Request: fold
Amino acid sequence: MRISPDHLLQALHEAPLWTPLLDRALVLKPCLLEAAELRYLRGRVGWTGTELAQALGLDSNVTVARWEGGTRQIPQPTERLFRLLVASVLGTPPLGRLLAQFRSSWQQAPAPVEIHLLPEENRFEYRWRVRPRRIPRSLQRLFWDTDPQKLDLERHAHYIITRVLEKGDLEDWNWVRWTYGEERLREALRKNRQVSPATAELWEKTLSSARREN
Reply:
């Protein structure tokens, strides 16, 4: 189930049992929260704009209103403090998990992502808000034997996934995970004979760990 920022309240109304999963996905989102997401999480902890401003050490709620209205972007340090406050009130995710994410640059997305809830599995995934059309510059080093700009992300998906799994690092792994989805990666790990057993075992453990942390 794809969750867009503009339909958070609708999702909460239609499926209230999914709320804890959605809360966790938002607080752990690997890019800056959007205006509607800030507003949603403030409502989830039951604060007014004035109460949030006081908790963040602001002089008034005007700045909060601008963040939530989308006319001003919340600074990253303040946004992280906001997430910690929300997590401490809601009790999810564990603060240690959130702090570990803040300290790990490879867990930060360089572009906006959206949330996909899988409530039947009690987990969520992130996908790029705008799906990339080409291999990003940061990954082009992995495709030394071809012209990366000529690779089609769908037609050459098998080759791209295999190369990233074999030669890439954690940031590269996140890129393919947020491009193709975790099930497609699991399938590649199970069926792709070009991925060595040791590599497949490593990434399977990484994927399983990420799912447990959900």
Notes: Residues 137-213 form one domain. The chain has a mean pLDDT of 89. The radius of gyration is 19 Å. Strands lie at 2-3, 113-118, 123-128.
